[in-house]
Amino acid sequence: MAEPTITVRRVYDPEDPAEPDGLRVLVDRLWPRGITKADAHLDDWPKVLTPSTALRREWHAGNLADEVFRRRYRDELDAEEARAARADLLARAGDGRLTLLTAVRDPAHSHVPVLTDFLREDR
Hints:
By secondary structure, the protein is α/β, with parallel strands linked by helices. It has helices spanning 37-40, 53-60, 66-77, 80-93, 112-120, and strands spanning 5-10, 23-26, 97-102. A 3-stranded parallel beta sheet has the order 1-3-2. The longest helix has 14 residues, at 80-93. The model has no long low-confidence stretch (mean pLDDT 92).
């Protein structure tokens, strides 16, 4: 199977015409504030690949340690529906670029690294 280059960007950052994003995918459960659907230039918004509402609320409320959040989110990603969405995204991206878009201020300390690892494993 072809392997896309996976990048992560904030949805608020302008696109760089010198380095096209390829397949643009929103990876947040909620729509980002202040962005119109037309301005987002999304190709997909697979909510099944985002943390569930209950998990997201618990984590943002401070009720879960990061390790517990990561484990529970990973359990959600192991569901059949999430695995099917993963296969679809990777097939559509092919050997091009897959850009994961998020509204979080610090993508490195969010759900995004867990999702990125999930997308990169066992291709």
